[in-house]
Design a protein that fits this description.
The structure is a homodimer of 319-residue chains.
Chain A lengths: L1 E6 L13 E5 L6 E6 L3 H5 L9 E5 L5 H4 L2 H10 L6 E5 L1 H13 L8 E5 L5 E3 L3 E7 L7 E7 L4 E3 L1 H6 L6 H7 L4 E3 L2 E3 L5 E3 L5 E5 L9 H4 L4 E5 L4 H7 L8 H11 L3 E5 L14 H8 L5 E4 L5 E4 L5 E4 L3
Parallel strand pairs in A: 3-4, 4-5, 5-6, 14-15, 15-16, 16-17
Antiparallel strand pairs in A: 1-2, 1-18, 2-3, 7-8, 8-9, 9-14, 10-13, 11-12, 18-19
Chain lengths: 319, 319
């Protein structure tokens, strides 16, 4: 799977960072998923290789505008780009109501179907290559995390062994690949002897705004990557108070350390952290680093990360 | 008055042009008005000198998303920037309903008042320096043009004459400036003798989407500048058919010629015209030029134009 950040700023856009949006691409083919859709997410897409015709579903973590106000425009542009395929939207029910009001009042015509799935029911949603499960988080409004798990480990034939044992290539190999025991020259042969397990299915957990990381403990089990907000450092979080219900760097980092998740990507930075200002996101990095000893990353707009089937995870550096 | 284009593309954003938005600044002070607010208008503002605290009013020409989907985000960001002053919104009633639904479903909190004025009633709206009048246009949905007229010609004291005639500087001059006759040494003195008329008030007409330019004939009388869409050239308009209800270059140019308006700025170009593609906006310019002999301009994102009090109009070239 691949991640590309489309917006990494909390609340308001800055010159360097848009409000929240994240693209998750499938390992095979061109299908991708959008998690959150702040205003101008469609504008960000113009600078990537992602197209609105290969978008399979949109997941919205919560109703706040910096996570959702790009929805009407992206749906309208998909229509103008000629999209005909249904589009799945997994979101709080209020988003469905808001889009219905938008269609009505702004005379938005969509020549494709929207298939809504109510995130408030904590659904598991199955796609060809992925199952997405939903976790309730803690924020000022109902808010969710989505975990993207590859559907099956790939199972491979041990071809060397098949050849050594003289199992003839052809239909028998196909049956063994499906896990079926076969007969060769009247002798029963166990499929399991000739199957080698691929890597275990990988999982990426993408959280919405959340002041209680421990709510993700269960869903992060066997996860390779956690993408979570770190809106502030602790000093600023203390100054701002608990009203906004966000996480700070040390808090989410300590949680990630406690569950031993190997890769943590922080995002959703307060606009007070400017890349070339007196207060930079490196303060968030430095604070998180004191608590977490796995691989730590700060998201930037357009940064791409690849999670290999073997669990390797790294930033894709554009050539 | 000053114009700065924030978006000049029709329907969808491109890498070079955002969807519609136009800032009109008052001649004196920092007050400004926003005409249309396509998605990411607030993002465009980050690259200008305009601030959300000095925004006096937003005018929406019609409900289509490429003219309105930036509204929720710009209102939310104004709130987060600490705006407390009421904000006037002149728009079709459906926009008021859509924003009410947006406030409800996305839990948008605005710590300032919105003062809605229903464009469907064709209001005249008075501000300190300007009166804005509304004209109904012809499009697929109710659509309006807004004309911004300076409130009064500036009237100046003829100081040379006052001094020649020995009228003592002080309160008397103030009364004369207000057009009041005064007595000097028992002699009645007419204020009109000492007032010299400034330039006539300037007018800029900004139209929404419209397939019938002649609807603007009356409001363009005494206008200095007309800003109007030219979505296509005639060849493309013929191919597309009359369904979209837009103007083409020769059509709006011929209208501008017929009413003798001295300055015409074309905008809202179909995304098929790319600045560095095989089909460029220069086709629109060339077609318009055959019909119009005034000063013709094509809008670009961030282009600024100044209309002087004497009617001079020119692009402001950044140093």
């Amino acid at each position: 799977m691949k991640l590309q950040f489309l917006g990494t700023s909390a609340g308001v856009p800055t010159k360097q960072r848009n409000v929240t949006g994240l693209a998750l691409s499938e390992s095979e083919g061109k299908g991708w998923y959008l998690i959150d859709c702040g205003e101008a997410t469609q504008h960000q897409l113009l600078h990537t290789h992602l197209t609105l015709n290969t978008l399979k579903a949109i997941f919205i973590t919560h109703v706040h505008g910096d996570h959702s106000y790009g929805l009407p425009g992206i749906l309208a542009s998909a229509a103008m780009n000629g999209r005909k395929n249904p589009l799945t939207i997994v979101a709080p029910a209020a988003i469905q109501q808001w889009l219905a009001a938008t269609v009505l009042h702004t005379q938005l015509y969509l020549p494709y179907e929207l298939e809504f799935i109510d995130a408030d029911t904590l659904p598991d949603v199955k796609f060809e290559q992925l199952t997405v499960s939903t976790t309730a988080l803690s924020h000022r409004v109902p808010c969710y995390g989505y975990s993207f798990q590859e559907i099956a480990a790939s199972t491979n034939l041990n071809i060397v062994k098949l050849q050594q044992d003289g199992i003839p290539r052809g239909p028998l190999w196909g049956q063994i690949k499906q896990g079926l025991d076969v007969e060769v020259n009247g002798v029963k042969v166990s499929a399991q002897h000739y199957l080698q397990q691929g890597h275990p299915p990988q999982k990426i957990v993408v959280a919405g705004d959340n002041d209680s990381p421990q709510l993700l403990a269960e869903t992060c089990r066997d996860g390779s990557v956690l993408v979570h907000e770190a809106t502030y450092t602790k000093a600023i979080a203390d100054k701002v108070g608990s009203g906004p219900m966000h996480s700070y760097a040390a808090q989410i980092a300590a949680f990630a350390e406690s569950i031993n998740i190997p890769h943590l990507v922080l995002t959703h930075f307060s606009s007070r952290y400017q890349d070339n200002g007196p207060t930079t996101v490196m303060e968030i990095y430095d604070e998180a680093k004191t608590q977490y000893h796995g691989q730590l990353y700060l998201a930037r707009d357009f940064a791409e990360f690849q999670l290999q089937r073997n669990g390797d995870f790294a930033e894709v550096i554009a050539e």
